[in-house]
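Let's practice the habit of predicting before peeking. Look at the sequence and jot down your guess about where helices and strands might fall. Then scroll down.
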Amino acid sequence: MSASWFSQPFRPDGGITAEGLRNQLGRPSLSHLTVLVREAAQNSWDARAEDVVRFSLDLRTVGPGHLGSWRSLLLPKAPRETGPLRGLAEVLRPSTVRYLAVSDRGTTGLGGPTRSDEYGAMGERGWLSFVLNSGEKQDSKGGGGTYGYGKGAFFLASRAAAILIYTRFREEGVHQTRLIGSALLESFNNEDKRPFTGRHWWGEEREAHCDPLLDAAADTTARQLGLPLFAAEETGTTIVVIDPDLSNPLLPEDETEDLSMSEAGTYLAEAAAWNLWPLTLPHRTERMDISVSVEGAPVHVPDVTSDAVLASFAQAYRDAVDPDRREEVLCGRPKRTLGAFASATTFGAHFKSSAGEELGLSRDKAPRHIALMRQPDLVIRYLEGPIKGHEAAGYVGVFKVDDSLDATFARSEPPTHDLWVDSQLTGSDATFVRVTHRRLNERCKEIAGPAVTPPKPVEDAPVGTVSHRLGFLLAGVGTGAPDAGSTDRTARSTAASGAGRSNTGHGAKGARRPQLIGAPAFERVDGEWLLVQRVRAYQAARITGRVSVIVGDGEVESSAPAEAEMPEVVGWRTADGVVVEGREVACEEGEFDLLVRPVQEAVIDIDVALVKG
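Done guessing? Here is the structure:
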């Protein structure tokens, strides 16, 4: 194996420069790290071959055992850079060399021809689309891409505009592996004044092109470089971003400060969570498992079980795809269904993500946002609505474009797929996008409601009433100790925090305890606004519901304070919509709703348990 760099000259009939390819994404409003997460995940999802796509982001420093191989393999004949980027010689000579490995497994890999002048049937052009050609239309069922420009995100995320592509696929019943390097530097003229495009490949140099390393040579070289290898039957792709740009995305452009490796790992995890969460929901048949690591150590990726706002978005998503619970968003002229909408109310829940700030999700603030999405359920953007009357109150929603209009909305997007722009369309298509924004803004105003009147003075109120009022402001406080009684303690959910905290262990005699699902939300039931908490039972049992108020010291208020009401359990609603009154219900295995009559300006604690005996 004798790999080396090959620089692409201009052909007699012209060609595109590397600068042109890098500019295809324009100047994204999002950071390079966030754009990379979005575009890479979309590529991986479009290439899915199994029900579960395993998508990973691994930020590493090249270890001393591999650094020599990086230099001996990649430095000879390495292309020089005369522009603002860093050349490979500058990147690889210091003692610290960083890379970001973006991997997917359970995907097809990049198969098909390795030359652009060879025919590859649609569906067998992965290598041509990603490695060689530019602007080739994708043809993946349910895919989110349009013309494959998203690969530019990998080069934008590299300060050397250089990547390694390591892929494994199955063709004609045989597993095949390929490895190639690629760089997009400045176009230039050589010493003979011959013009070159600035596109470079690292692999098996041929007379007029570069072939990838194949099979054993590819695997051996990947092992020498310390790249993630493939298991026996695995297929997929690993893209290695050399010298990733770790600039702090939250600083102004004229301020340069890098995130630490740990901070960058956290940022990647949060960016993955807030951009990709719809694909990760556990109830999906086809879904994505996301992992992030720094130097091999796992980084927590927020999800619907650990983040209250994400849990509320997930509930809104489930309702939006449920024909019996969603609202249809309509256009009047021409008459057309634009998509499905659902929302959920939050209390005390707030955004905790730095990466979310880049998406317009204000840290430590209550949400007031609608997640916009189309196929394949990646978040396009978060539409911000007006605030509710109380700073602890918020709302989330999901709008999903009707499948029949997916191509229309795709055409309204810039290459980074982060906006719907009606001015990019004409006629009815432009109307559909414009009316969608109008309808959603109207819906947000309805949900936010009018501003509340200032609270009445409470100087003369009894102390119990003051604590009752203050309780609403104390989001995320403890839920207090369970009381002794005839029930087995299971799960609790604080309505003000919006976070369902559950214990899914086993109670008496091995019975599995019921679990709270997601966060409670307001819903109008038989003309009355009630808090609705989804509950899952794991076997036939009798279950009871209890509610109480949490006051300023984090303890449960067991009796009504002076001149104040207490929340109460109204009853239970079965999956088919039947309401059963009372605190207790006999149920079968499955999901159903606990209905609670709340009180104003209070943190409501919800508790469900098995009835003993």
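How did you do? Residues 308-448 form one domain.
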